Every structure is written in C-alpha cells, then in structure tokens.
C-alpha cells in the first residue's frame, strides 16, 4: 500500500516539477502527517528526485518538512522522537520556536 501510494504521489510531484519547469532544490515539501505511510511517500518522492534530477538524498531531505500532532518534527522539541521521523527532523529550529 505504501509503495503504491508513494509511486502515485511521486509521479504527481515529478509531473508538477516538469510542468512548472522548476528544480526540486528550489521547492519545499510539507507533509501533514508523519507516520510510516507519510515517510514512505516522502521516500518515494526522494527516489524519483534522486533518479531524475541527480539530487543527493541529503539535499532532498533538507527540503522536507514533516508535521505531526505536535507540530513541526524537529530535533529540539521535547520528548522522544519516533525512529522513522529522525531522518526528517528539522535541525534549523530553535527550541523556543517549537510550537509557534
């Protein structure tokens, strides 16, 4: 299920980038939901971007913003972060800005 959904969404994102004539490095992807399905979808988009635009995965990950029930997924927010969210946790948000 996750792979199928990811493939459909990744195709949509790739087509939107092509139609808009923009490079993924100039875009931001915001995903409301940070469960395993959302991360699977983002991974699928990342695979398409890496293959089509020769963009390193690390650079793609920097353009992704995951939101969950507690807000933006960051490394500085209180509490433990689920393992599948760690790779996408923002490091550029100060602790005092969490939840704003």
TrEMBL record:
<dbReference type="Pfam" id="PF03949">
    <property type="entry name" value="Malic_M"/>
</dbReference>
<keyword id="KW-0560">Oxidoreductase</keyword>
<dbReference type="GO" id="GO:0005739">
    <property type="term" value="C:mitochondrion"/>
</dbReference>
<dbReference type="GO" id="GO:0004471">
    <property type="term" value="F:malate dehydrogenase (decarboxylating) (NAD+) activity"/>
</dbReference>
<feature type="domain" description="Malic enzyme NAD-binding">
    <location>
        <begin position="2"/>
        <end position="97"/>
    </location>
</feature>
<protein>
    <recommendedName>
        <fullName>Malic enzyme NAD-binding domain-containing protein</fullName>
    </recommendedName>
</protein>
<dbReference type="GO" id="GO:0051287">
    <property type="term" value="F:NAD binding"/>
</dbReference>
<dbReference type="InterPro" id="IPR012302">
    <property type="entry name" value="Malic_NAD-bd"/>
</dbReference>
<dbReference type="GO" id="GO:0006108">
    <property type="term" value="P:malate metabolic process"/>
</dbReference>
<dbReference type="InterPro" id="IPR036291">
    <property type="entry name" value="NAD(P)-bd_dom_sf"/>
</dbReference>
């Amino acid at each position: 299920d996750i792979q199928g959904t990811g493939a459909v969404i990744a195709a949509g994102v790739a087509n939107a980038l092509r139609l808009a004539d923009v490079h993924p490095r100039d875009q931001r992807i915001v995903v409301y939901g940070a469960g395993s399905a959302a991360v699977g979808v983002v991974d699928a988009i990342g695979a398409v971007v890496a293959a089509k635009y020769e963009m390193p995965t690390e650079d793609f990950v920097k353009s992704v913003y995951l939101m969950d029930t507690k807000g933006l997924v960051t490394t500085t927010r209180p509490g433990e972060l689920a393992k599948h969210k760690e790779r996408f946790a923002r490091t550029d948000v100060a602790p005092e800005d969490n939840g704003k």
